[in-house]
Amino acid sequence: MRLTSLSAIALLAASSNGLATEQTDTATPQLSNTYINDQILPPIIPWQGSSESLLQAPDAQWATPFEQNGLKTSPSYDETFAWLDKLIAQSEMLKKVSIGKSPQGRDIWMIVASKEGAEDASALARNGKPTLLVQAGIHSGEIDGKDAGMMLLRDMVFNGKAGLLDNANLLFVPIFSVDGHERSTEYNRVNQRGPVNMGWRTTAQNLNLNRDYAKADTPEMQHMLRAINIWQPDLYIDVHVTDGIDYQYDVTFGYNLAQGQSPSIYNWLENSYRPSIESALSEQGHIPGPLVFAIDNTDITKGMSLWNASPRFSNGYGDARHLPTILIENHSLKPFKQRVLGTYVMLESSLKAIANDSTKLQSAIQQDKYRYSPRVTLSWQQEQQAQGWDFKGIGYTLEQSAISGNDIVRWNGLPQLYPNLPVIGGTKADIKVSRPDAYYIPPQWQEVIERLRVHGIRMTRLDKPTELKLQQYQFSEPSFANRDYEGRQRVKAEVSSQAIDLQLPTGTVRIDTKQPLGDLAILLLEPQSPDSLFQWGFFNPIFTRTEYIENYAVEPLAAQMLEDDPALQTEFNKALKDPEFAADPKARLRWFYQRSPYYDNQYLKYPVLRGY
After folding, report:
1. Average pLDDT, stretch 536-558?
2. Is 399 considered catalytic here?
3. DSSP 3-state of 407
4. Least packed by Cβ within 10 Å: which of 11, 289, 458, 561?
5. Where are the domains of the chain?
6. What's the topology of domain 61-371?
7. Looking at 67, 182, 220, 329, which residue is catalytic?
């Protein structure tokens, strides 16, 4: 809805201290007029939508904990599954399975909802219906999806919505980051308007699950990837809450771009899925929009960023493995009630979307899985998009802060349209490589091989020594990150390639790139790919020199080398023309060592080899 200046003034005057309060149904009990952080957040925009009819009275028999407690709280882990266990006991349509345990020993539960009451992946596959996987709480303070999913399951069992399962299945993970969920206080997520207590952004190991898809370091992510491989969903929804600027949209969502690895999936999402979802949200009183990332949070007129996510993120990973993946980003400055209801509408309409258009959806998935593009883009450059954005923003002013000395934004709560804002996106192909027929990984790189297996990438092993003509990358000028990131020391290097004839040992792993996850394998194994296992530091031992030669040995060795090879003398004389080299005794001796048969011929060479 649009907010007039008079209504905004009335809102601001609603409390004696000048703070905005949430406009709610007077019949609904409220824990407080404001959240603890309301006094430091921009004004609340009053909202009422048709989706409020989805709510049950707090004293209704099957009211969720969210509905029982004033629409401002979200239940703990134990409270969540105590309520869900009671619901599951009422219906043969619902089953509960654990996809694995967290580092602190909690089960990561998944609710399986199907008309047939399938208890495992094989039974679910037999019903032939498309499957939606919904994941809440990957950042456990951003928990809207949990409470929305609980309401939706309740309504399937008791309130006439079992028909949603006539032509679709639902897999629902209420809490993904279960340990972070229990690190809950009212002082988490300072930029977010509720719930009262919120979980922590990272896991108990302080790792961010939505930076872990490619490297898959955490037990939680490994469990989720195995679940995806086992249950084979057709659509994957990852529910978040934003940070950042103020605007009118309450539910924003996005997915891979047309330029990525899954263009057919993009076309289905953009031309079939998005129109139906935005229509459903709008009919229920919500304001849907694309993902919002301002180029400059202090100057909206500079435009918006169109995000081309890499495989460390859920939506980028979905693009790489050809799994249609929706990233929901509910607006953090909208009250918890509004966000939960918007999520409910989106989940319900997503089930309808895959049921109504399953043939085209599954056809798009198959086209992308078996496209096998001969050239694969590893990285992207930014460029301005042809289409601008009429952005539904909020008015603001800039004030100089006496505290920081910077200009800071003061949002005024008044809707303002910013017409035809420029949009800058990573859509210009940067580094491209040809598709090799296969990769070969020596058996000693066990962590890498196991991680690829967790992703579900198919591989075989050589059962005898095999001689092949292959390509090998050579690195130079390695550059290590100056600080740890997500538990890893990232690295980049200059890359060159050479053809070699090599005998591969028994046990070498062969990964064919003409398989459904072949594009994912390429993005994980090509060292110039930003989310390659190389750049995540899995191969950092190759940068360690472990054998040396003493000066007393290299001196006579160098003299003998020069005597035996006149061309080497010419090359050395040329090198001496560099004054810096000529003045460095260690560099001069190293020059000979590197050209001797004693030098480590594996130093700075990538152990993963490319077939032709």
Report:
1. 94
2. no
3. strand
4. 458
5. 61-371, 435-545+604-611, 551-594
6. Aminopeptidase (3.40.630)
7. 329
